[in-house]
From TrEMBL:
Organism: Takifugu rubripes
Cofactors demanded by this protein: Mg(2+)
Keyword Acetylation: no
Similarity annotation: Belongs to the SELO family.
Molecular function via GO: ATP binding; metal ion binding; nucleotidyltransferase activity
Pfam families on file: SelO
Coiled-coil intervals: 530-557
Keywords: ATP-binding, Coiled coil, Magnesium, Metal-binding, Nucleotide-binding, Nucleotidyltransferase, Transferase
Region annotated Disordered, chain positions: 642-699
Protein name according to UniProt: Selenoprotein O
Gene from which this protein is expressed: selenoo1
Amino acid sequence: MAYLGHRLGASRSFLPGVSTVRLLSTFGMDDMGISVSRSSLERLNFDNVALKKLPLDPSEDPGVRQVKGACFSRVKPQPLTKPRFVAVSYKALELLGLVGDEVINDPLGPEYLSGSKIMPGSEPAAHCYCGHQFGQFAGQLGDGAACYLGEVKVPPDQDPELLRENPSSRWEIQVKGAGLTPYSRQADGRKVLRSSIREFLCSEAMFFLGIPTTRAGSVVTSDSSVVRDVYYSGHPRHEKCSVVLRIAPTFLRFGSFEIFKSPDEYTGRRGPSCGLDEIRGQMIDYVIEMFYPEIQQNFPDRMERNVAFFREVMVRTARLVAQWQCVGFCHGVLNTDNMSILGLTLDYGPYGFMDRFDPDFICSASDNSGRYSYQAQPDICRWNLVKLAEALAPELPPDRAEAVLDEYLALYNGFYLQNMRNKLGLLKKEEPEDEILMSDLLQTMHSTGADFTNTFRCLSQITCPIEGEGEEEEEHVKKATALLLKQCATLEELKAANKPTMDPRELAMLLSMAQSNPALFQMISDRVTLARQLDKLRKLKELMEISQEALKSKQAEDWRGWIVRYRKRLALEMEGQSDAQAVQEERLRVMEGTNPRVILRNYIAQNAIEAAENGDFSEVQRVLKVLEKPYCSQPGLEFPAWVGGSGEAANQGERDEGEEQQQAMASSSTPRNPVSYDSKPPAWAGELQQAGSQRRTGN
């Protein structure tokens, strides 16, 4: 795809010598009988129901403040200097009835989709919400950088498939990074290029993986800049202000209902609308009527309606986190203010997809205790549902909420096991030992340092036993073992992965303190963190005493044992089946449609970010194109665009002419051996992973 910035050419003019912008500002749209053709963005049909049905802050004071008795505050987005497109998602823009090429070629497109210029019918506002952050109630939070632009009515010819999960027939659009709001606290309301690209790419990647998510329509960057200390190293630098266009039925979240919270028993903080219970009822009515109309229709009794609503939110949340676990996705900051009331993946900050399988995988530098680790996500989502139930009371009776929550674990396990059966190709039967087989697979992946995504992808290549295969069985097992060994970590990679993150002296001090002064220890650390560090130390000691050859032999032995059991289980799939070939073909189809070939690995995103920071936006659009078909091979799109040119863009015409200053400031990356997008990550990706754990990903 051609570089977007070069397609914004000259300004459109519909009357000789008169620009559209000047005409509109001088005469108005249809003034004096002159009919002016409007762009597709200017023709968007806004119907901002949320601002009509939910309380609006009467003050338009731009300053940071507590907002009482309101769900939204009007704001004025701060314009960017020379905004320009980095990338657009054609598929996401289709939700709004927009054609990507028309948006790209609209001279005002970057201004409209960054909030620098307001589209007709748009009513910029910021949403007020609260949240429990890392288990503690934080009080008022709100949209500190995001800005609601309005709700666009679905075009009459929209594909019904696009409206699954959105019965409201409206799409809320937001710009994230458009400047200060009453909820910006100590921040500046801006986002930079790296975090904007990360959110843009992951929003779309999750959708095409089949996981419920908010969408991203575009990324716009600019000549405006802010200062960020990326690694908290004391060496801040200027970075370009950038904005993501976000799309969803609604961005309301669990924390939206926490604005009514009474003083918290631990922090003493309260919601800004504490005591205004009538607004809570208003919000519940709005959410159910707009986004859960079947529940509204089927439950005339208000209490039963509210219970059914909470149960549906619980079901969607359980299904969502099961899907995350099955693709190795870690959200990073599962606070209540980052949990969608519709069961969507919401707010992409320090997220990460696992490379090597590690149940303790943490992707947020601020999560020292592992509260939001990969394996903790199902339990944390239930904890957040408990807080939502508390926020909905007394509209939701506590005893009824508890009964609903009692269903969560069984529902989650059911969703997870069904997904895992599909990933393993166990389609015809459900055997009691299936859960053990799955658990042992993950344990083997962990002990061998196997790549999570590629190991599952490889399983479809393991043959199903056929009757009378005899001596050939050992050869099949040997081939399968060799296949999976390629996805295992080397000795040096495992050593690096198991190096304790805590200084040995600090670790020794905490061990001593845990025994001599448990109360003080509890104030500055916790036993889970300490146990995790000690486990790493134990594993590292074992690895220091083994050779690469011995490690590989142990990995082969572990995999061989599991493969033999897996093939026996596959044989059970054939029992009673008259058409063995049809069973095999179905297994292959389901597995290849469930186990992605490509995910948004950290190093893939970082390659695109570094290219963009140096003025080349082509890699962002290229990665998006690859992520749009994550389950398929895509000939011609196997490698990054820079392969074959010493890290430079393959097409020098695809450079942002306005990025010279940023290019000088961006650190040039060292030469890297290119790997395909669907390969096991290269060794240098581990260095990025370590650096990424220290950097600010959310700003």
